[in-house]
Amino acid sequence: MTLEQIASCVAGYDPNALPVAQAREFIARLVPTVRGIESVAIRSALGRVLARDVISTIAVPAADNSAMDGYALRGSELSAESASRFRVVGKGYAGDAAGATVGVGECVRIMTGAVMPPGLDTVVPQEFVQVDRDADDGRAEGERISVPPGIVRSGDNRRLAGEDLARGEPALRTGRVLRPADLGMLASLGQAEAPVFRRLRVAFFSTGNELRSIGEPLPPGGVYDSNRYTLWGMLQRLGVVELLDFGVVPDDPDALRRTFAEAAAAADAVITSGGVSVGEADHTKQVMAELGDVLFWRIAMRPGRPMAIGRIGEAVLFGLPGNPVAVMVTFYAFVRDALLAMSGAKLEPLPMLRAACSSAIRKKPGRTEYQRGIVSRDERGEWRVAITGSQGSGILRSMSEANGLVVLHHEQGNVAAGEAVDVLPFEGLI
Ligand code: AMP
Ligand code: MG
Questions:
Q1: Are 120 and 73 a contacting pair, CB within 8 Å?
Q2: Angstrom distance (rounded) from CA 69 to CA 55
Q3: Per-residue model confidence as pLDDT tens digits over 271-305
Q4: Which ligand 1 atom lies nearest to the CA of residue 206?
Q5: How far is CA 217 from the centre of its chain?
Q6: If we measure between CA atoms, which residue out of 325, 323, 293, 329 comes closest to residue 308?
Q7: Quick one: pLDDT at residue 73?
Q8: Which residue in 336, 331, 343 sits closest to 240, CA to CA?
Q9: φ and ψ at residue 231, rounded to 5 degrees
């Protein structure tokens, strides 16, 4: 499908005032998913995308076992009215094979994780049990214990075989971005390796005559290239990509042509910054249009209005604006999910906080705004958010100081001080 054909499938598509939601829908239709699958050791699979369902070949746990240190017995023998007495006839440690059958009025001293002896279904934690001191000669066997009434119910403190994972049940699904808990799940199934999609190859470079790389002297009018570092950081955090840094390219048609062609041949996705402003007689735009099938958008958002999207050869092109904050915001708004989808990941919506905005914000309906904010808890433990100083799209400090993006949605109007707004926090636990 050509880009124009894809565009025609998106309801309300207007390239000169494209709502964020439509742009996201367009991109979702455009991007292909990587095909290659490789098997990697589970520690190397952290942050990678699972390429096949993992079906459990064993039950976890394999047998009913104790959740506490205590005494295993038959719950049906516990009296609801008075203390119940049992004779200790054995001991069970984690790792022991299931013991012998236990008779009526008998129990077993049991440790956490030990297999429940046949017929026993309940564990009384040791702190609730009175040990009959007369019989206490230091050995558990022969001891008598007394369990007060109403302390435990039948079946308490027992983990059932297969309660974590039943045999034949899917433990993890295709498209899962593997997290620490998932590595543990794979290990609990005895799996040394996991099938994952191959890493996406992402090429990126900055464009602009004014840009200098770190280490070069800064001439008058020169600017150090920061976008390649923020982009690198955001791509690293994504975890699913292999990065190809093509450096800084001047606004020179030949150099741009060469770099675009090389990057597109080497990568699944090419991300550039700068040179896509609408109405600008910019070489970057011309070269993109010449080499590929590319659309130029004005997105109804702030910051980050101009953006190019398309294909150069087999690669997907994301031509981001040049302003340092706009690069980050457009990356989070569009590129992040697109790259995850290309990597085979099943997308989960990012969790948002609702926080009371500490100041009023002027906002026109009809565009999405991403303000940089600092979220904290107020005295009552409720979330509040303060906007970080100047919100100019060139002021990277606003992003560095912030710990979240305040999202003012497309239809939303002015925000009053104290009104609740949505915030995308930068940090998460996993
Ligand atoms: P452009 O979109 O190319 O017109 O750039 C918009 C603004 O962002 C200009 O002020 C550029 O100097 C600045 N800019 C573009 N690329 C970078 C970069 N890689 N690092 C820092 N600033 C940049
Ligand atoms: Mg430029």
A1: yes
A2: 32
A3: 999 999 866 667 899 999 999 999 999 999 999 89
A4: 19
A5: 39
A6: 293
A7: 97
A8: 343
A9: -60, -45
What single string gives the DSSP state of each residue in 346-375?
A: PP-PPP-EEEEESS-B---TTSEEEEEEEE
Q: Give the closest ligand to the alpha carbon of residue 271.
A: 1
How many angstroms separate the CA atoms of 259 and 262, rounded?
A: 5
pTM for the model stands at 0.91
For 171-185, what is each residue's pLDDT tens digit? 999 999 999 999 999
Whether residue 303 is preceded by a cis peptide bond, meaning omega within 30 degrees of 0, is yes
Q: Is the pLDDT of residue 136 over 60?
A: no
Does residue 120 surpass a pLDDT of 60? yes
**Mutational test site, ligand 1, from 205, 227, 248, max ligand atoms within 8 Å of CB:** 227
Q: Is 273 in the pocket of ligand 1 (CB under 6 A)?
A: yes
The neighbourhood of ligand 2, an ion, using CB within 5 A, equals: 208, 274-275, 322
Amino acid present at 414 = N
Closest among 152, 151, 113, 277 to 208, alpha carbons compared: 277
Residue 387: CB atoms within 10 Å: 19
Which of 98 and 159 is assigned the larger pLDDT? 159
Q: Determine the distance separating the centroid of ligand 2 and the alpha carbon of 21, expressed in angstroms.
A: 27
Between the CA of 211 and the centroid of ligand 1 the distance, in Å, is: 8
CA–CA separation, 174 and 164 (whole Å):
19
Determine the Cα–Cα distance for residues 73 and 66; give it in Å rounded to an integer: 11
Ligand 1: atom nearest CA of 275 is 3
Kind of pairing between the strands at 65-66 and 122-125: unpaired
Helix (H) or strand (E) holding 187: helix 180-188
**Size of the chain, expressed as the number of residues it contains:** 430
At 82, list the tokens: 């008075």
Q: How far apart are CA 151 and CA 80, in angstroms?
A: 9
DSSP-H helix ranges across 267-361: 283-291, 324-330, 336-342
Amino acid making up residue 427: E
Alpha carbon distances (Å) from 250 to 21, 36, 223, 274, 325: 33, 35, 12, 10, 21
Q: Which ligand is nearest to the CA of 326?
A: 1
Q: Is the CB of 282 under 6 A from ligand 1?
A: no
Cβ atoms of 84 and 77 within 8 Å: the answer is yes
Of the candidates 373, 372, 366, the one whose C-alpha atom is nearest the C-alpha of residue 413 is 366
